[in-house]
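Hi U.,

Before I forget, here's the chain from the pilot set. I'm dumping it here mostly so it's searchable later in email.
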Amino acid sequence: MIVATASVQLGKIEQQRIAEQELLHIGREFQLALLSYANSTPVGQNRSPKSLQELVKDPRFPNNQRHLRKIYLDPMTGKAEWGIVLSSDQQRVIGVFSLSDKKPIKIKNFDSYFLGFDEKKSYRDWVFVGVK
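Structure:
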C-alpha cells in the first residue's frame, strides 16, 4: 500500500513538472507574440494589443496577420483563461500569467527571458511580459 501511494505521488509530481514546462513554453509563445505585435506596428499606432485575441488576428492590417496561432490553454488550470498584465493606462495587454495559485516545482535556473521567476511562490507569479 505504501509503495502504491508513493507511486501515485511521484506520478502527480511528474505530471506537474510536465505542465510546468508546458507553461514556460506557452508563456514564451505569448512573449514572442507580444514582441511581434510591437515590432510590426505601423507608424502612429499602439504597440500593444487591446486583447489577447488581437494576437491571433491583428485588426491593424487588412490581410490576416497572426502573432499567435491560438489562445492556448493554461496547462496549470486547463482553461483558456489567463491573468492579464495591462499597460500603465490600463488599456493595453503587455503580459500574461497563469491563474494557478499552486506552488511551482522549479524555483531556480530559468532561461534569461524569464527574469524574476526565481523563488516565486505560485505560478501566478510567473509573469510573461512582451513589452514594458
